[in-house]
Write a structure and sequence with these properties.
By secondary structure, the protein is of the alpha+beta class. It has 4 helices and 4 strands, in the order βααββαβα. A hairpin with a 2-residue loop joins strand 2 and strand 3. Helix 2 packs antiparallel against helix 3.
């Protein structure tokens, strides 16, 4: 299943983590673990944010991804299923049958 992991990192914790080098290490670890199709980084409501699109076969893997990132960054994390255009087309074709 393709998922989007969206995160925001509180400003104070993000500033501290950026200074001590743990922010880059936490993001690198998350990227390595998810092997994403795409990853984007931005700001949301004045906080550091990112969206990572990746595949997972076992939902139990989500705990392995979330917990270290929570601990390192105090991030708020949302994980939702997402479709690419081909997935959407297949679903719409099945829905109209």
């Amino acid at each position: 299943m393709r998922l989007m992991l969206k995160f925001t990192i509180p400003v104070e914790k993000g500033n501290q983590a950026a200074k001590d080098g743990s922010l880059g290490a936490a993001i690198d670890a998350l990227i390595e673990q998810t092997n994403p199709e795409a990853a984007y980084f931005t700001l949301e409501d004045g906080e550091r944010a990112g969206m990572i699109f990746f595949e997972v076969e076992d939902q139990a893997q989500l705990t392995e991804l979330n917990e270290p990132f929570f601990a390192a960054t105090d991030a708020a994390i949302e994980i939702v299923p997402v479709l690419n255009q081909d997935d959407l087309r297949r679903g719409l074709t099945k829905a109209s049958s």
